[in-house]
Amino acid sequence: MTDLLDLLRSPWPWWVGGPLIGLTVPLLLWIGNKGFGISANLRHACAVLLPDAAKPSFFRYNWRAERWNLTFAAGLILGGTLAGLIFANPEPTRLSPAGAASVNALGVQVRPGLVPAELTDLSNPGVWLLLGVSGLLVGFGTRYGGGCTSGHAITGLSTLQAPSLIATASFFAGGILSANLLLPAFMAVVR
Amino acid sequence: MSAGTRIPGVTDAPATRAAGGLLVYLLMGVYFGVVLIKSEAASWYRIQEMFRFEAFHMYGLIGSAVLTGMLTTWLLRRSGARSLDGQTITVTPKERSWARYVLGGATFGIGWGLAGVCPGPIFTLLGAGVWPMAVVLAFALLGTWLYGALRKHLPH
Q: In total, how many domains does chain A have?
């Protein structure tokens, strides 16, 4: 019994998780001819929430046809509760020695949980700045670039689309820049 | 089939069908959310390690996801199968361009590197009880609205 619980709580190696992520693309096509892409839900949520008077034309479309995707996003929340709360891994993320050293150098301790306590302490105004700027760029950038990791890196590359290769290379370039240069600067404020 | 055709024994129940149809997507979301957590793609630590090239984990994860997706999607389309609701399976081609993918992609990447979350993990981490992700979500909605308001002035 404890063995089973340990198994349910433990994280998976990349060669288990990767293929299961990839299978989402044909599964959604097979179920209902749907293109997999999570960030589109941010647009749908704006289309649902914005009052008509303050609605740019970008958000005027039949979002009801996209209810399947909003439902998928609701499922993501439930999946997070199941795997990240009920069967949460009691151990910290098993980083490489180099990864752990870099994280420590940012002033972050490696503890159990998926997001460090240093970045979720909302009593610290620096944390609001970090989370707010990050969210703003993710929302703006995914719509400008027409997709996120799921729509471009997973779906787009799986279906051999050149624009998705350009987008994926660009978000990796942006991420490398921000993790190595911008984040250390932000962390100096957060600490 | 023309509208109004009746097949014996088959009754039209669009409302039930719609709800039943949505349940499948809820389950697919649960499936994907569990995978995001268990594969640690939703771990801030793993994203930092990836963007510093300090471990193979995320590269193996994304690489094997793309290879699996490529192979299985190719097989599905080659089989000529229709979707469960009877549609011909189609992949909408992405519009050809450079500017929007380079500029939009890099903007998203910069945000991703900071809080370590792309859109999927924002939702799954909220479900896992990481409430401050609500701040990221609120600002992501603001960013999406900002794009919608400014898009006519941006190079695409």
A: 1
Is A137 part of the contact surface with chain B (CB cutoff 8 Å)? Answer: yes
What pTM did the predictor assign? Answer: 0.92
Q: What is the DSSP letter of A162?
A: H
- B-facing residues of A in 46-75 (CB < 8 A) are 46, 49-50, 56, 58-59, 67-69, 71-75
Structural domain harbouring A173: 121-190
- Residues A95-117: tens digit of each pLDDT: 999 999 999 999 999 999 999 99
pLDDT tens per residue across span B42-62: 999 999 999 999 999 999 999
Q: Is residue A61 assigned to a domain?
A: no
- Looking up tokens 């997706």, which residue turns up? B69
**Nearest alpha carbon to residue A34 among B87, B101, B77, B124:** B87
* Interface TM-score (ipTM) > 0.90: yes
Q: Identify whether A94 is part of a domain.
A: no
